[in-house]
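User: Can you predict the 3D structure of FAD dependent oxidoreductase domain-containing protein? Sequence below.
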Amino acid sequence: MTATGTVTVPYPASGILVEAEAFTHYGGWVLDSQYELEMGSPYLLAHGNGKPVADAKTAMTVPKGEEGEYNVWVRAKDWVPGHHPGRFNLVINGATLPIEFGANDKDWTWEFGGKVQLRAGKTTLTLHDLTGFCGRCDAIFFTKEDKLPPPNGVDEQARAWRRKLRGLPDQPVDGGTFDVVVVGGGVVGAAAALTAARLGERVALVHNRPFLGGNASVEVGLRPRGVTGPLVDELSARHPNGDIKAKTLLDAEAKATLFMEYTVYNAATTTTTTTTSAPTVTITSIDARHARTGREIRLRAPIFIDCSGRAILGLYAHAETLFGQESRAEYNESLAPPARDTTHHGNTVFFRTRMNSSPAPFPPVPWATAVAKDFSDLRGQLTRPGLENGDGPQVVLPPTTPVSVPRRMKGPLTHFWEYGNYLDPYTSGERIRDHLLRAIYGTFSNVKTLEPDTYANLALEWVAFVPATGEFRRYKGAYVLSEGDIRSHRPFHDGVVFNDGAFCLHYPNANASATPTNNDSGHAHARHHDYDFRLHYWEWDERDRHPYAVPLRCLYSANVANLLMAGKHVSATHIAISNMKFMGNGAQHALATAAAAHLCHKYATTPAGIYEQRGGQWLGELKELCARITGTGTHHAEDSKDRGERVKSRL
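Assistant: Sure. Here are the predicted structure tokens for FAD dependent oxidoreductase domain-containing protein:
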């Protein structure tokens, strides 16, 4: 939990580092490890929705002979500069330091807490929340050195400083060698790992959260859509507490090993160059770090499946990727914009309100209403895990939708709460989440303020701190699926699974100058011009409602030989991925990639090797295996247009 040590760096090199995530008792604080790759470390979050949370507590040991006067540094963040909504105190041996942390108008930084006298032996530390509005503490550092603050970056120098002071090895320890490693434990990754294990492969599943499911997890709560099938239904069924059953199923598989709360931060590769072909990159291992202990491990496998939804292995292995919206001309897509841009689907934070039997006070939140403005519509709630689009209080009617919009699109849609479409999803995730929290708190305050008698008892029952994430980079595979492929049900001789559903395109408010209109194909648009956290309009094109084929070539990297992918980052255009992104659809990719990994192991080949094998026996075997796993019988994916209805009924 605590460690002492000395390192050779230009900032304090000796002292006692206490990581907040290593506290013995979190109290009402929660561990937030989502943004470690952005800001450097997991941290504790005081997420009380306006009510200060219970204290987090721990103890550290001052070695004998090291007693004396120490400088105190606390790494914290003022997440709304000028307003300081996330303030907290540090209490040492019962004495509160005379500074409120999280109130310095700065992003993540080390704040000086003054000097304290410490005796040898046990010292107690307490984080005391003052607001209930997302105060956050990364670490506490005690040093006798009067130097510059500790390193504040996310680079290797900062990581080495932390490792040394925590007594951790300089290099990752061996975490094992497997037949296949799956990264990302959403519905897609869980499906890939479970399928691989049931096919007899020794599989490791690496996931950065304490719950499996991703956007369907109990931390978020979406219901898987698209094609599901027996296995997906099995693993996404929910326990009474809302958690999906994926972990229970995987824990029962002898061939499966779960690495929960591990963030992948590196991939080692080798490159083979020949005179007749382009260089071939192969991933040999990946490194992952545990959120609570900082333990770093190295996992090896001949095949890797990226189910992270953010092409994370591709970034580390320098795989070819796609990002944003392709232009209309690039793939001849009717729904694409005239010019290429970097707009992508944003994130959503779910919430739920309730009416108490007595008044539920809520403090003034000018820092939140600055985002919400006059918005006062709390519809679009998560009623319970797996049931979104719930109703809610509404004081002022939002901008209306056209009369011709289909009735079901006029409802209280959860996904109209969205932000981040223009920001870098890899470096701005925390900022996006925080903006949505401000929007929710501000809207809630507006409702209670505008009709104080009606909503005096209205309370926030639950607000997620883990957002439903949208679009990141997509891989470029041996083939890029496009809108035309889906609409025409293009036959693929390497079609391995089916996907289904509508083109689901989210457009933020910068498009307000080009207000669309409905047309006969069922496109639906909802207008929320004045609020940057509300979608401007939403394209929902159900096409012909028949399933379509997904070729194997969309499920492996174009330039990383042993990298398969499944989910919303497969090889497809922005328009095509708006249909393929549904969790049920991604799980179908997962089943196919697990089957492909199984055959790669069986025949000592690569995914491209399966596709390119002369005679096609391996590809034929893969298609038969996928048909058996998905329950589609002998209806191969190249038959999607002619046999769509029969296949759909089986899926």
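The chain is about 20% helix and 25% strand. The longest helix spans residues 429-450.
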